Structures are given as C-alpha cells and as structure tokens.
Amino acid sequence: xFDKEIMWQSVSEAARVGIAGHIRxxxxxxxxxxxxxxxxxxNYGCSVTVYIEELPEKYGFLAGSDSIDLSFKDTxxxxxxxxxxxxxxxxxxxxxxxxxxxxxxxxxxxxxxxxGYAHENLIVHDAAATAEVLYDLMDPARISKNVAExxxxxxxxxxxxxxxxxxxxxxxxxxxxxxxxGVSSARIIDGTFYEKTYLxxxxxxxxxxxxxxxxxxxxxxxxLDRKVQMLYGLVSSDTDGVxxxxxxxxxxxxxxxxxxxxxxxxxxxxxxxxxxxVATICSKFGGGGHIRAAGCMLNGxxxxxxxxxxxxxxxxxxPHTPGGIEN
Length: 327
Ligand code: AMP
Ligand code: MN
Ligand code: MN
Prior knowledge:
By secondary structure, this protein is an alpha/beta fold. The protein has 2 domains: 4-194, inorganic pyrophosphatase (n-terminal core) (Alpha-Beta Complex); 199-317, Diaminopimelate Epimerase, Chain A, domain 1. It has 12 helices and 11 strands. The protein has helices spanning 4-13, 27-43, 96-101, 130-137, 145-158, 169-179, 185-194, 198-209, 226-232, 242-247, 278-284, 302-317; strands at residues 16-20, 47-51, 80-84, 104-109, 120-123, 212-214, 219-224, 254-262, 265-272, 288-289, 293-299. A 6-stranded mixed sheet has the order 6-7-8-9-11-10. It has a 5-stranded parallel sheet with strand order 2-1-3-4-5. A hairpin with a 3-residue loop joins strand 10 (288-289) and strand 11. It starts with a helix and ends in a 10-residue tail after the last helix. It binds adenosine monophosphate and manganese (II) ion (2 copies). One manganese (II) ion (MN) is lined by residues 28, 85, 110, 129-130, 158.
C-alpha cells in the first residue's frame, strides 16, 4: 500500500536517491523528474541522481537541468529510486536496471495502462500530469519557486496549456497554487510550449500538407519515413505539437502520426477527441498511454500500419460508409 509518509521517511533515511522518467521525455516527464530532484536536494540530506535520456534546449532554464545524468552512468545501488511519469518498466530505458537494484522503488504516475512495476506504486488515473500527483505529495511549505516551476511546466505540457479533456478543477487549482510561488507562467507557456524552431514549423507544414483523411473524415494520418527524417536531421522533439495540430482538424475524432524509427518499424502516436479509447488500441500492440493520448510500435509498410490502426478504430466507432481515403 502506498503511504506518502512512509515514502518521505524512506527518503529521509536514504544516503542515495535515484530518479528517472520515460524514454523520449516530454515536458511532464522532465518537469516531474526535476521537481523531485530539486525538492529532495533542497529538503533532505541525501545525494540525488536524476537520469533523463535527452534534454531539449528549451528546458535548460529549469533548476537542476545542469545536474541531469544523460549518460546513465552506473554509480552503485540506490536506497530509494523514483520512476516518474513512466507507464511501464521497459520505457524507463537504461534506468530500468537502477530501479530493479534499488532497496525501495516508487512509481508515481498517471498512465491508465500502468501495471505497477515498482515496490510501491501511486498511479492516479484522473490526474492530468504526474506533476499534479507530485504536488499533492509535497509539503506546500517546503516547495520552492524552482520546484514550482518544474511542476507547473509538467502540468502545462500534459494538458496542452489547460485545454485537453484531462484538465480538471483540481488541475487548475494545483496550477493556481503553483503560481503563488512566483512562477513565470508566460515564460513557461510561450517559451517551452508554443515557441517552435524554424525546423519544427517546416515539419509541421509538411505533415499537414501530406496528411490523409480517411473513415469519412474522422481519422487523420500523417507519416514521416526514415528518408524524410534523415533529410531534415530530425530529433524526437522536432515533431512536438504536430499530432495536436492534426487533431484540431474539424470533424476529426482520431489523429495518428507515424514515424519510421528503423526500416519498417513505426512509432505510432494517437490522439482522440471524445469517442475512441486510443489507450486500448495501443495496449493491444504492446504500447500504452491515456484514453485520449497513447502510443505504440508497429511493424510493416506504412499501409499495413494504417490498415491495422483503422481496423481497430472501426471496431470502436462502427463501420464507416465506403469511399476510401480522401485527400
Ligand atoms: P506520444 O504520442 O509519444 O506523445 O505518447 C502519448 C502517450 O502515450 C504518452 O503518455 C506516452 O507515455 C504513451 N506512450 C507512447 N508510446 C508508448 C509506448 N510505446 N508504450 C507505452 N506508452 C506509450
Ligand atoms: Mn510523459
Ligand atoms: Mn505525463
């Protein structure tokens, strides 16, 4: 049974604490990991190591970002290890081995598909972000502006700036409380969410231009094969926001973005509006996520992948009138 008092007690008794999030980290993952890093460093006497796979430049202003171990160096066993915002053990990537060897491991998350792989697990399905869960675990009197900034950033990113359907009264109240610590909301929202590099805008444009609409306009799909990714020299964060823009297309229920990671191996991102449970679909193929935002990996040609996914969507939405792919 998860008990927050026992969790903080184990941190206070620990000499070494480790923290990690998921591979291809997003804003909630980075914000949550750095919030925990700063909170423990500021309030407890232990040494803290935070592992994150990559840190896009825009997050470099967050306190603790200089201390991130990007190389996943094995420095011996941890007394306490936190897996944050990570729905399954495999997605911890190179940090999975650190968690396995830790004396106490804690998983704090909000993914519907999380099966609880740590010693103690706190999975809050209706929380918009892991950062929202973390705020409830922390003592408000011991939260600094640095910690508040990290948490606020996590919430901003996982709610798409408070607009996704996961945004609750509690989410807004948490964000409101975080503002009282002096967080610069505009800097975080504009500087890390809306601002796009020229390359990101080019890719967004390309994905929109080449998108296809199918299933009577209810599904929109865009894909980036390896050739295109290499042509532009894309990194994972270069496609941030593309799927959200696709989903905003009028009449669309499901948006799909496919990225070819290895020949005929596709990384699938799915978003839905209000009917289709994309977590169920992605779980079927070994992935996971949330009801309205999920992902998985699929093999085959781009057409194989599209057929597989649209079949699953059809099973949830019911058959569409024939007409095939529209442009
Ligand atoms: P993304 O489309 O990558 O932004 O992911 C949407 C949501 O699905 C996030 O909460 C991810 O953590 C989750 N997700 C994405 N890909 C996978 C995967 N292969 N396995 C499990 N969860 C995933
Ligand atoms: Mn995440
Ligand atoms: Mn999250």
